[in-house]
Write a structure and sequence with these properties.
single chain, six-stranded mixed β-sheet
């Protein structure tokens, strides 16, 4: 069938690697020359295919790299994507040696574990993170839209910022609200303390501040 097997005489894929010693991990090494001295040294796995015109194009890639210098020899894992021409790959995301995920940038000096930079092709674009529901579109109130949860290392919740539907959704009709929840003493469950409703009114505890749109509901 044209499949190639390494470690097996019954390959199930175009290239099938098999390790009969089940107690060991199956590893495949792609290694750059050990005498390489350039910066950003490492090995790049390029992913592509034959296009409709018969030429070959690169569509993505994964690189295990290292900052090759006496001062900084730490590793990273980078993800590349085609730059619209099928020939050149540009880095789009990176996991650095400290476990930080960087999108559209390759370095950062802060302690943040997630850095999202605006599109490099548009200097006026800010970084954006989208949190979306699973399942059906146009949910009904008071369905959850998403949340950001603040926890300790044991996953105990201290505070939550949530978005909810504040009315049933339909085409071009998406009323929403933001809830701010905190956990009280001797409790394990965050309780809503502040809400910004669909009309911009701010509800704090049992008080309703109606400066925006005159609606505290």
């Amino acid at each position: 069938g044209g499949n190639v097997g390494i470690g097996t005489d019954n390959p199930q894929q175009p290239v099938h690697l098999y390790n009969e010693r089940s107690s060991n991990l199956l590893t495949t090494r792609i290694q750059q020359s050990t005498n390489n001295t350039s910066t950003d040294g490492g090995a790049l796995l390029e992913l592509g295919g034959t296009r409709s015109d018969g030429t070959y194009g690169f569509y993505g890639g994964i690189k295990g790299g290292r900052r090759n210098s006496a001062a900084d020899n730490k590793g990273y894992l980078a993800f590349f994507a085609d730059n619209n021409d099928g020939q050149s790959l540009n880095e789009k995301a990176r996991i650095d040696h400290g476990g930080r995920l960087m999108v559209q940038c390759t370095s950062d000096s802060t302690d943040s574990l997630l850095i999202v930079q605006g599109n490099a092709g548009d200097s006026g674009t800010g970084g954006q993170i989208s949190i979306q529901r699973g399942g059906n579109a146009n949910p009904t109130a008071p369905s959850d839209l998403g949340s950001i949860t603040f926890k300790d290392s044991a996953a105990n919740r201290g505070a939550v910022i949530s978005a909810i539907c504040e009315g049933d959704w339909a085409s071009d009709d998406y009323p929403g609200a933001l809830q701010f929840k905190v956990t009280n003493d001797s409790s394990a469950t965050p309780t809503e303390r502040v809400r910004i409703n669909r009309k911009g009114a701010l509800n704090v505890g049992s008080s309703k501040l109606t400066a925006a749109a005159g609606d505290g509901n």
